[in-house]
Amino acid sequence: MPVEVGKPVEGGKPVKELHLNAYAKVNLTLNVGGARSDGYHEIESVMHTIALHDSITLREAGTGVEVLVTNSEVPNDQRNLVVRAAQLLREAFGVERHVQIELVKRIPAAAGLGGGSSDAAVTLLGLAQMWKLRLDGRELLALATKLGSDVPFFLEGGAAVARGRGERLAFLPPLPTTWIVLARPQVAVTTEWAYRQLNPAAIAVRPDTSAMVDAVKREDVRDVGRLLCNVFEDLIISSHPIVGELKSRVLRGEAYGAALSGTGPTVFGLMANEAAARKVADELQVLPDVDVQVTRTFAEER
């Protein structure tokens, strides 16, 4: 039945505190088209959430919107998408209740793993529950799109093809558990810089999105690894050769494939098994200024 957007849910005990996880993602494919009239680019990307996550606690406390960040230098002001998500929801539905948000960061910032976007999506979902708001999917999607191109995907997570700015989503069955190595060199790459530098007309190799979708549906992880492709990879490697070195080192292990995630600088490898993932991780951890983690594909039911 239709649900009235923004209407408080009747009855039930008020929610005073919620504990939630915000999962990272990798881009199995990332393709970019021309610039749009709104300044964004058309994208097409097959994405999948992974087990690496931030932890978010929402509690009725403080004054207005307060964010406490631990384990990270991530700011707690308007630069943080969590703050903007909470304020957007308060303003959209006239909510006057105060909220304190505790954010424990494990997903590295500006790494191509979508940490900030995932935090924002989970904040929207959690506060809608805490404040007993009824939002239909379209309204939630509209709010998420205002916050960032990847935020809509994280409302659901799992596996999906994202198109447009990222708001047009076709969800796919998630992959079976697949072990992943993440290697992030300590170099700075911003999304804005990467898009400014990229010339879509000069891209020589583009992802085969339809083939990747088929491989994901067939749960053929070998094929998924073979089809990994990101149009930003050559650009990022030319500016930061360490990215190419990390990819080569991952591929020398028992890897189905390796690629850049997002605009980087994180490289990820789909590994044959957990032992292979940990072996490659051990080899990479001896390199200076490279952060290495072992994780796996993950899909949470929401």
UniProtKB/TrEMBL annotation:
EC primary class: transferase
GO biological process terms on file: isopentenyl diphosphate biosynthetic process, methylerythritol 4-phosphate pathway; terpenoid biosynthetic process
GO molecular function: 4-(cytidine 5'-diphospho)-2-C-methyl-D-erythritol kinase activity; ATP binding
Positions annotated to bind ATP: P108, A109, A110, A111, G112, L113, G114, G115, G116, S117, S118
Domain GHMP kinase C-terminal residue range list: 212-284
Enzyme Commission identifier(s): 2.7.1.148
Record's catalysed reaction(s): 4-CDP-2-C-methyl-D-erythritol + ATP = 4-CDP-2-C-methyl-D-erythritol 2-phosphate + ADP + H(+)
Sequence ranges assigned to domain GHMP kinase N-terminal in this UniProt record: 80-158
Domain of life per record: Bacteria
Keyword Nucleotide-binding in annotation: yes
Keywords recorded for this protein, A-Z: ATP-binding, Isoprene biosynthesis, Kinase, Nucleotide-binding, Transferase
Active site: K25, D150
Pathway: Isoprenoid biosynthesis; isopentenyl diphosphate biosynthesis via DXP pathway; isopentenyl diphosphate from 1-deoxy-D-xylulose 5-phosphate: step 3/6
One Pfam family cited in the UniProt record for this chain: GHMP_kinases_C
Functional description taken from the UniProt entry: Catalyzes the phosphorylation of the position 2 hydroxy group of 4-diphosphocytidyl-2C-methyl-D-erythritol.
HAMAP family the UniProt entry points to: IspE
Family designation: Belongs to the GHMP kinase family. IspE subfamily.
Protein name in the entry: 4-diphosphocytidyl-2-C-methyl-D-erythritol kinase
Organism: Candidatus Segetimicrobium genomatis
The encoding gene: ispE
